[in-house]
Design brief:
alpha+beta; 7 helices; 242 residues; 8 strands
Length: 242
């Protein structure tokens, strides 16, 4: 008895069943038409480029749909030490996931601690068709308050996860008002206006940026702690006055 012939793959596209031929069927049709395997490889490469282009278009369309009706992110907890409301990472993500899923989007984070003095978190968002985009951010461990080394790392990772997720999803900023489940206030970094001011003055004074950032144990101007803003500005004003 002859082996049962493999059935072609059936793909559902916009509620319409589309029968996609198998690679073997494509090869056989090419050979019958007088082609060869080289032609098949060229066709597959072209198909791969086409699929990647379509996947990127679908990703952009999905992100546009998500941003057209973004989720409301509430401040769901109170910091007992500072008597202030903040948004937990869980609330940020759980408020976003239903609409992300509806748009065919998912996310994950990649963590890099190869540099013991710096923590890098990358948020990766992927569409159902396979296209992914990512946003990375780095920061030294959060040494504020009386945190032990593990708490410093956890606080920083929590903040970086929330910030990179907000950034890539185009969500409204919560003014760095994120926290872990402890009593720390979270890392408070410079505001957008403060970052612009510092960058403008660094450019005006032709400052040594790495040396300047070393004063604040920061990787970038964006990761200078907010309480250090006045000190940073005064340093640049003094340099400009010389």
């Amino acid at each position: 008895m002859e082996a049962a012939e493999a059935l072609p793959e059936v793909i559902q596209v916009n509620d319409i069943a589309v029968v996609e031929p198998s690679p073997m069927e494509i090869i056989q049709s090419i050979i019958k038409a007088g082609g060869d395997l080289a032609m098949y490889k060229d066709m597959m490469a072209l198909q791969k480029e086409h699929d990647a282009y379509q996947a990127k278009k679908a990703y952009v369309k999905a992100m546009a749909a998500f941003k057209a009706d973004p989720p409301h992110i509430s401040k769901d907890k109170t910091n007992t030490q500072y008597k202030s409301k903040y948004t937990t990472l869980g609330n940020l993500i759980n408020s976003s996931l239903p609409k992300m899923s509806k748009c065919g989007l998912s996310h994950n984070w990649e963590l890099d601690q190869s540099d013991p003095k710096m923590i890098k978190v990358t948020c990766v968002v992927t569409h159902a068709l396979g296209h992914s985009e990512s946003t990375p951010m780095s920061s030294p461990p959060d040494g504020s308050g009386s945190k032990n080394p593990i708490q410093q790392i956890k606080s920083t990772i929590t903040y970086l996860k929330a910030t990179t997720f907000e950034s890539i999803m185009g969500l409204a900023s919560s003014d760095a008002n994120f926290d872990d489940d402890g009593n720390s206030a979270g890392i408070q970094y410079l505001s957008v206006d403060q970052v612009t001011e510092i960058n403008d003055r660094l450019e005006e004074t032709k400052g040594n940026v790495p040396l300047f950032l070393k004063n604040f144990n920061a990787a970038t101007v964006e990761t200078i702690p907010a309480p250090q803003y006045t000190r940073a500005l005064n340093m640049l004003k003094a340099k400009a006055g010389k």
